[in-house]
Amino acid sequence: MNEQHDSSTDGATAASGSACEVTETWNGEIAVVAAAGVVDMLTAPQLEDALRKAVANKPEGLVVDLTAVEFLASAGMGVLVAAHDAADEGTRFCVVADGPATSRPLKLVGIADIVPLYESLDEALAALRP
After folding, report:
1. Collapsed DSSP state (helix, strand, coil) of residue 25
2. Is the torsion defined by CA of 120, 121, 126, 130 positive or negative?
3. Half-sphere exposure of 70 toward its Cβ, with a 13 Å CA cutoff?
4. Which of 12, 44, 60, 115 has its CA 20 to 30 A from that of 86?
């Protein structure tokens, strides 16, 4: 059952040039929070809010899809770690990150040692299904 919740948030900021769009969809009992654009100190709160709402729904799994992220700053990485820590013990958590803008920084700072990373959404969903 694929269900789309339109919790899309557009964080275009004219002065900074930062823009981030965050959406939440459900694939069965797995929540998928996808970000697109720039995740920096100005836009990370949007991702944080979406992840907080997804965690509150107590999904069996939570996937953060960063496939369409062009830039991931340390603020965004902090949001990922906080969401991972906030998820219930029964909620499996992972991140989709492929490429130099997302997977490389997550690996360099050690987040990939804490949070499982996958190269595609399909891989992540397959890993989280029972």
Report:
1. strand
2. positive
3. 9
4. 12
